[in-house]
Specification:
There is one protein chain. Helices cover 35% and strands 26% of the residues. It folds into 2 domains: 3-99, Beta-Lactamase; 112-325, P-loop containing nucleotide triphosphate hydrolases (Rossmann fold), CATH 3.40.50. The protein is of the alpha/beta class. The chain has helices at residues 3-13, 44-51, 57-64, 112-119, 136-150, 185-192, 208-219, 233-242, 249-259, 287-294, 301-306, 316-325, and strands at 17-21, 27-30, 33-36, 69-75, 79-88, 91-99, 124-129, 154-159, 172-177, 199-202, 223-228, 260-270, 276-284. The chain has a 7-stranded mixed β-sheet, sandwiched between helices. A 6-stranded antiparallel β-sheet has the order 3-2-1-6-5-4, with helices on one face. A hairpin with a 3-residue loop joins β4 and β5 (79-88). It is globular. The protein is built from 12 helices and 13 strands.
């Protein structure tokens, strides 16, 4: 099986993911929908053979013997991919995610207003939330790229794996991959704090230790950008607080009230005429927002967002309404 040919077809079709699994026909995801590619079901041995030229002998052995692998892969003429290899009931399986070859600008992604808010921050915490596959990494990459272009900063990224490659422009950018350059997000973050950073980008806030260190970094003069798997801005804040023990929650709320700058939560919706576009909920940490967080009155944040357009805030409902009014998405 020619995996490169399958990936070439996926790139040409504008797909975002390719799924290959023993016992199944190849499938790709385009505009959020899975599509079967013509051809017979794949077999485990041909999957292993097709991937042999892309993996080291050790990686191939790990995959065939049950270990899950998560990695980035650059292929000539095709681009860069995030690759997850695993085993399932019928044998070997893998998923390719296509990483855009070019970092989109803030205007292309309708992020200019959000970036202007972030660009005025010398420190604090910026969260980008949403479900898996909603474009969080692309949004974060665009924000980092714009900072890199406009300001002279030391930017350190901690990713698992490194997806988008940033070239230093006005800023110095050092990208570190978990499992390759550091043992985990927490260890990488501890090290980053000793490396004179201005900006730290964390691929994902996964655990209590990483969240604790991220809050500490945001409090001590660093701008921290991070993703979280959440459905709303309010849920993003709740998620950070809830991982802590009950006796620590008041202190964590106080830390968040002091350090939080912006929360952006997005989901991809169908664009009129084809493709998908991001709808974004935005919470900006105004004095009123900080007071509500400090006092634990999270339920009232939604009302503040509804009334906070002048501060750059919007709810998901408001974002969808604006997209419909502009004809970007079809009316219900």
């Amino acid at each position: 099986m020619d995996v490169t040919d399958l990936l070439g077809r996926a790139v040409a079709a504008g797909a975002c993911d390719v799924h290959l699994a023993a016992g199944q026909v190849p499938m790709l995801r385009k505009d959020g929908l899975l599509q079967r590619l013509p051809g017979p079901a794949l077999q485990g041995p041909e999957l292993a053979e097709g991937m042999a030229c892309m993996l080291s002998e050790a990686q191939l052995h790990q995959w065939q013997h049950g270990d899950e692998l998560d990695m980035a892969l650059a292929l000539p003429s095709l681009g860069r991919f995030r690759l997850n290899l695993f085993r399932q009931l019928n044998g070997l399986a893998l998923t390719f995610r296509l990483i855009p070859g070019r970092i989109a600008g803030v205007d292309e992604l309708d992020l200019a207003g959000i970036f202007n808010t972030i660009a005025g921050c010398d420190d604090g915490l910026v969260l980008v939330g949403g479900p898996t596959g909603c474009g969080k990494s692309s949004t974060l990459a665009t924000l980092v790229d714009q900072l890199n272009r406009e300001r002279a900063l030391h930017i350190i990224t901690l990713e698992d794996p490194v997806e988008v490659i940033h070239s230093s422009q006005r800023s110095l950018v050092n990208q570190r991959e978990v499992g390759r350059h550091c043992t985990g997000f927490a260890q990488g973050l501890r090290s980053a704090l000793r490396q004179d950073p201005d900006v730290i980008m964390i691929g994902e806030l996964r655990d209590l230790t990483t969240i604790r260190l991220a809050l500490r970094a945001a409090e001590t003069g660093h701008l921290v950008l991070a993703t979280v798997h959440t459905r709303s801005a309010v849920n993003s804040i709740d998620r950070l607080v809830e991982v802590f023990a009950a006796e620590e929650k008041p202190l964590v709320r106080a830390m968040l009230a002091q350090s939080l700058q912006v929360v952006v939560v997005q989901r991809l919706v169908r664009r009129a005429g084809g493709g998908r576009v991001a709808a974004r909920e935005v919470l900006v940490a105004t004095p009123a927002v900080r007071n509500l967080i400090r006092e634990g009155r999270m339920a009232q944040l939604h009302s503040v967002m509804q009334a906070g357009a002048a501060d750059g805030m919007q709810t998901m409902e408001g974002a969808m309404r604006r997209l419909r009014d502009r004809g970007v998405v079809e009316a219900d």
